[in-house]
Design a protein that fits this description.
Urate Oxidase; eight-stranded antiparallel beta sheet; 12 strands; 24% helix; purine metabolism; EC 1.7.3.3; Uricase; peroxisome
Length: 279
Amino acid sequence: YGKNTIKFLRLHREGKKHFVKEVEVCAHLRLTSPQEYLEGNNSLVIPTDTIKNIVLVLAKKNGISSLEEFAIDICNHFMTTFCQVAYVKTYVQEVPWQRLHEDGVPHIHSFICVPDGIRFCEAEQCRNGPLIVFAGIKDLKLMKTTQSGFEGFYKNEHTTLPERHDRILCGELFCKWSYGECKDFDFNCIWKKIRECILEAFAGPPDCGEYSPSYQKTVNCIQMLVLSRVSQVQIIEVVLNNTFYNVVDMKNLGLTNDKEVLVPVEAPYGSCACTLGRK
C-alpha cells in the first residue's frame, strides 16, 4: 500500500538565482505482517498521509540534487525509521522545466516547460537486501523524415502493406535502465549522456543521417550505443510506439503530392519493445 501522485515544487535559492524541481512521487510499502489485511489490526500501518508528509519533509531537509538520490533518500528513511517495513518502492518523475534564456543569457528566476521527454526513476529495497535503482525517460517524441524503410518482410494472403524504402520514422519513446551496485554516481550526468545516446542512435550523423530498416533495428541501435558508452547501465528496456503517416491523395485537387502533405494514422498504431542486458 502507499501514496500516489504526491506533487510538489521544490524551490532552491542561491542569492538572486533560483533553481526548481517539480516532481510527482509514488511511495509504496510492504510490511512484515499482513495483519491489517487478515485481521483488521492497523497497529503497524503507517498512514498514507504520514507517507506523504515524510516525502515533503525529506524534500525540504535534503533538497533534490537528482531524482535518483531523492528516491534513495525516501527508501533509506523508511528502512531505517520503521522496523515493520519489509519493502519500499519509490517512483519519482519530473516536470520538464528548463531555465529561460533571453538573447542567450540565462534568466535568474524564470523557466519554461519544454515537453522533450519526462525524466523518471525508481528505487526499491527489501530489508537486508540490496538497493536497486532504475532511471529512464518517457514521452520522448522523435521523428526523421527520411532514411527509414521497411522491406523484405514476411508476406501471406493477409498482407496488404506495401514495401517502402523511404518513409517517415516517427514514434514516442519509453526507455528505462537499471544500474549495477550504486556507488557515488553522478546521476544527472549519466541521464544526460544516455539521452544524448538515444538521440544520436535514432537520428545518425547530422549531415546525412543513418538508414533504419525497421523500428526494431532502431530500438536495438539505441540499446547498443547506450551499453557501449555508459558502463553503469546493466539492463536497458526500450519501447517505441510508432506513429504512421499516409500521403494525402490530391489528384482530385489537380495537385501532385510528393510526400509533402501527410496525415497521421491515429489508430491502430504499432509498438516495438526490447530489453537488453550485459552478459
